[in-house]
Amino acid sequence: MNERPFLPWLPFYTLLQKEVRRFLRVASQTVMTPIITASLYLFVFGATLGDRISVLPGFNYAQFVIPGLILMGVINNAFSNTASSLFMSRYLGSIVDLLVTPVTPSQFIFAYTLAAMIRGLLVGLVTWLISLFFAPLPWVHPLAAVAMATLASFLFAQFGLIAAMYASNFDSLSMYTNFILLPLIYLGGVFYPISILPPFWAGLSHLNPLFYLIDGFRHAVLGVGDIPFLLAFAVSALMALGLFGWAAFLIGRGYRLRG
């Protein structure tokens, strides 16, 4: 009798467990591959350029670039988890089995989201641990850094859900990664500070939503950034709220989930 209050959430826990087990079952692809990629970046920018150049006073290049690489891993993997999982369920038709279960739209979206956040933050954590071999980070505001990384994983979990529902085939799904996500990441200040750009390009970079996530996370870690942390966090939170509302609206309507 004591378990009855938790029964309505049983579908949520079951779906969350399924999603976590799904990416852990192929951890060599979903976790190890992005970690190896991040390690190569760290070797190139840490071992070869780390102490030779500096783009931020008081920090070497490795210290500057590591926060961006950590957040890049969080973003890419949170997006990939929801996008690939939901799209494959649609593509294979197994989404129909899920829709006839007593899973509510809120349970549906939060189960997919939380699993994606776990994967993204796990990759980010391991990337940081590997970065310790190349350069130490001061972690000036650790709680703010965790909050920004969590917000980034949540935001791109929603984006992954939206992409999976709009994609009609594998090519259109990969378009979101190759022509939207990666350009925004690379032009968002992962490898250079926006402040060193000419005024026109610096102003244009402020239209890049990834700039606020990356700069906010770097600001929390290093204590310096191109914009105030609260501004970066507020803009990122508004974007996350907007994408969550969009994803919830589509899932609530069953948009392209029933064939």
TrEMBL record:
<keyword id="KW-0813">Transport</keyword>
<feature type="transmembrane region" description="Helical">
    <location>
        <begin position="179"/>
        <end position="201"/>
    </location>
</feature>
<feature type="transmembrane region" description="Helical">
    <location>
        <begin position="227"/>
        <end position="251"/>
    </location>
</feature>
<dbReference type="InterPro" id="IPR052522">
    <property type="entry name" value="ABC-2_transport_permease"/>
</dbReference>
<dbReference type="GO" id="GO:0043190">
    <property type="term" value="C:ATP-binding cassette (ABC) transporter complex"/>
</dbReference>
<protein>
    <recommendedName>
        <fullName>Transport permease protein</fullName>
    </recommendedName>
</protein>
<keyword id="KW-0472">Membrane</keyword>
<dbReference type="Pfam" id="PF01061">
    <property type="entry name" value="ABC2_membrane"/>
</dbReference>
<dbReference type="InterPro" id="IPR013525">
    <property type="entry name" value="ABC2_TM"/>
</dbReference>
<dbReference type="InterPro" id="IPR000412">
    <property type="entry name" value="ABC_2_transport"/>
</dbReference>
<comment type="similarity">
    <text>Belongs to the ABC-2 integral membrane protein family.</text>
</comment>
<keyword id="KW-0812">Transmembrane</keyword>
<feature type="transmembrane region" description="Helical">
    <location>
        <begin position="145"/>
        <end position="167"/>
    </location>
</feature>
<feature type="transmembrane region" description="Helical">
    <location>
        <begin position="61"/>
        <end position="79"/>
    </location>
</feature>
<dbReference type="GO" id="GO:0140359">
    <property type="term" value="F:ABC-type transporter activity"/>
</dbReference>
<keyword id="KW-1133">Transmembrane helix</keyword>
<feature type="transmembrane region" description="Helical">
    <location>
        <begin position="31"/>
        <end position="49"/>
    </location>
</feature>
<keyword id="KW-1003">Cell membrane</keyword>
<dbReference type="InterPro" id="IPR047817">
    <property type="entry name" value="ABC2_TM_bact-type"/>
</dbReference>
<feature type="domain" description="ABC transmembrane type-2">
    <location>
        <begin position="25"/>
        <end position="254"/>
    </location>
</feature>
